[in-house]
Design brief:
This protein has 136 residues and is α+β, with helices and mostly antiparallel strands. The chain has one domain: Tetrahydropterin Synthase, Chain A. 29% of the residues lie in helices and 28% in strands. The protein has a four-stranded mixed β-sheet with strand order 3-1-2-4. The longest helix is centred in the middle third of the chain and has 16 residues. The chain is elongated and about 60 Å long.
């Protein structure tokens, strides 16, 4: 079995705010990330698949095809969007890096013919803010 990783990048806005909590509690928990106008990040995504190398093609999966699937299922939906306001899964789940990774896993699972989705890694890069969200 061979592991194969493909990287993609996207930019998106988000904020962290739980309507069940008070304003003060949201600020205590999420700091400046609680500002409901949102702020932006550049995200780096790594998708790892596992499978056997096809003896004819020499591929686990065709990287071009994997790139297309990531583009269609994730980048086209998330890139230059406000995650809280425009992406269905974050109407109910906070768009933390952890939840973004879970959502991407669900979007890609069973979409990659001939290989098994093995790892989804999401990096939130500081962009408009100097700090990472969660470090408030
Ligand atoms: Ni953030």
């Amino acid at each position: 079995m061979v592991l194969l990783t493909r990287r993609a990048d996207f930019s998106a806005s988000h904020f962290y705010y739980d309507d069940a909590l008070s304003e003060a509690e949201n600020v205590r928990l999420f700091g400046k990330c609680a500002n409901r106008n949102g702020h932006g990040h550049n995200y780096t995504l790594e998708v790892t698949v596992a499978g056997a190398v096809d003896p004819v093609s020499g591929f686990v999966v065709d990287l071009k095809r994997l790139k297309e699937i990531i583009q269609q299922e994730v980048v086209a939906v998330y890139d230059h969007r406000h995650l809280n306001l425009e992406v269905p899964e974050f109407k109910t789940a906070m768009p933390t890096t952890e939840n973004i990774a879970i959502a991407i896993w669900r979007r890609l699972e069973n979409k990659i013919d001939g290989a098994k989705l093995t790892r989804v890694r999401v990096y939130e890069m500081p962009d408009l803010y100097a700090d990472y969200c969660g470090e408030a």
